[in-house]
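Hi L., both proteins are below.
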Amino acid sequence: MTNIPILSLLIFFPFIGSLVILLINRKDKFYDNKVKEIGVWTSIINFLLSLIVFYFFDKTDSQFQFIEKFKIINDLDVYYYLGIDGISLSFILLTTLLIPVCIITSWNKIKEHISYFVVSFLMIECFLIGLFSSLDLFMFYIFFEGSLIPLFLIIGIWGGKNRIYASYKFFLFTLFGSLLMLLGILTLYFYSGTSNITLLMKTNIPFTLQIWLFLSFFISFAIKIPMWPFHTWLPDAHVEAPTAGSVILAGILLKLGGYGFLRLSLPLFPEASEFFTPLIFILSLIAIIYISLVALAQTNIKKLIAYSSVAHMGFVTLGIFSRNLEGLQGSVFQMISHGLISAALFLSAGSLIDRMQTKNINDFGGIWKQMPIFSVFFMVYCLGAISFPGTTGFISEFLVLLGVFKINFLISFIAAFGIILSVTYILWLYNRVCFGDNIYKGISDLNINDTLIFFIFLFLIIMLGIYPNFLISIYELSTNKLIIN
């Protein structure tokens, strides 16, 4: 494996698939099917490539692996520098899993500009894997910013009736944060003379400069997660996005902020991270409690799940800035867990909306009579969302609370109350959707393809909930290294 640029292959294989799609003759009567097939097989092959990386990844080594490095700008000392650790690999596996799911579930739902739709998802995959593999700040920024463009198009072209407003709101929020991060990157580069992340981890940065640099990165990452009060773009984006757009947004794009905190903020600005920890704890608790109360008031199913995402990501920032082993491991587990559960919930919401042409929860009811298979899957996803034992949600939030408990009992107690609130609105959602007197005539249950995809999420949510060490062992040494450093 040392002679194969496997990370570059993972990054650019979706790009090659996109070029092939764009070169297909549009007059071909099987054009749409060919586009979909190429998109699906490209993403599946990339998933298999990521499994090869996982197989050869050495869990006993905390250093970056599969290194690829060469200079791309001589005068500026900027490198094409790739490498992954256990944290990076976890997110790469989640990305390569979700992209084929997004394309397959949209097979018969997208009727216009199909080639651009599929290409958008392949390019998201390209940018995300590039981001998770980058060990150069400028490369990190390019991939971080690049992931904004395809999702902007997905919401703006294939979204709902207010898609233009939602897409521009999403674009402007994230662009503003990214520009602040760019200023921080330039400042850091001119101060240290390098954009090499591994070298910057060893650089002693003055406390005052750390403060300003931390803030420039923090705003960008806080918008991406999103933390309160930077979250207002998310519900609009989810409501207007097509189902696949919501899946990839909740499943992986919201994790970029948390990954940024782990990869850059903690190791590069440790003193500033400690200084701002009380503020971040306060913002996280507001997100967990206040946003949960907001979720309780929602009648739009996609908006309720969107607010639920904001609340659950509050546990991520609590865990990260607890800066102890349990908190850090719990935060990474929470991001992967939430990626699976939220993606499954949005797939479920999409299935209901497609069948009933409404997003209003009050219009649902009695679904279990017409869709018993769907109701069982939906129940497991909801149990995961309320941190029920035996699911990934329980493991992740338990670890986070344990890590925070070691620092401050009161903070962990308030955060635990947020779990109770999540039980309230999630169980209300399930009860309103699956039970009741409303009966829809002629509503079909999940077909074989949908059942298979739903089962994949159910299997992972339960398997990792019962055997969490399968995932934790991948990134355990990487989180240990953050504490040591």
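That was the first. Here is the second:
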Amino acid sequence: MRRIGNLYTLIAEPENLRLAFVKAARGKRDKDEVRAYSAHLDENLRLLRDQLLTRRLDVGHYSFFTVYDPKERVICAASFPERVLHHAVMNVCEPVLERYAIHDSYACRAGKGMHAAVRRAQEFLRMYPWYLKLDVRKYFDSISHVTMRGLLSRRFKDNALLTLFARILSTYETSPGKGLPIGNLVSQHLANFYLGLLDHWVKETLHVRGYVRYMDDFVLWADDKEPLQAHLHAIRSFLASELALELKDNVQINRCARGLPFLGYRVFPGRLDLGPRARQRFARKLRGYEAEWRRGAWSEAELARHMEALLSYVRFADTVELRRRIVSCVSKVS
């Protein structure tokens, strides 16, 4: 694949920076930092452009908070000016990363997403009798900056852009030379890109036809158990040698008829169930949302917005009876 150059100046174009602001501010116009940035928008965009052109970017201003759903994770949020920068970078670079991605990679890509990954997995469950499910141990924390820079240099030949990526990478570490912050736009895209090397190797060297990846969760399918066992050993070796990554111990090789636990769902060839932990989260969040509304913290419109996001996840599965039962229970309690 031909490397792409002459992109850095496109990032600094005024039209691109203004589009980046619009994307970064979407749904957040009432936030104080967005209002402050908007109040002097032209001046702030000129400053960002000057920083880009003079290679004196002010980056690395993060705030941290912990979420516990579905597991404990530390989220690293960049300051709003940096979020504008991240959108400006990805406006230009995302098409290059997209051209490298295989069809069955589903995270951080337009027209893909979690639900598309689950549906594709269900297609393969109907086509094959066996699956192998894998995911990476402490994925974001384990990503090597040196390896990432090398992978990026295979796709881009713009030294200024590669230096910019290196500068962004250097602002965060979980151990020397490793780690990407969860929660940043550039991080999400780079993390998905990092395992693109695995995608191509699985498809082009192992010649696996049934394969789906959503970030660091991935599944392979086959007609028999034995080739999947061989693939497991090969993948473990490839990840260690090429990407400095380790697999989690929760390797699963099983018959497709018994169902595949994937992205919070239990996927069967003919139906789609919500996973046990996802069911518990749904019930807990539903009660919590109603409590926020009853104590006056949320308006009905805010409650409806949060509920729609919650229900869109469970509605995707065969959960009509579950939703009816939980809503009934919540109503009785309240």
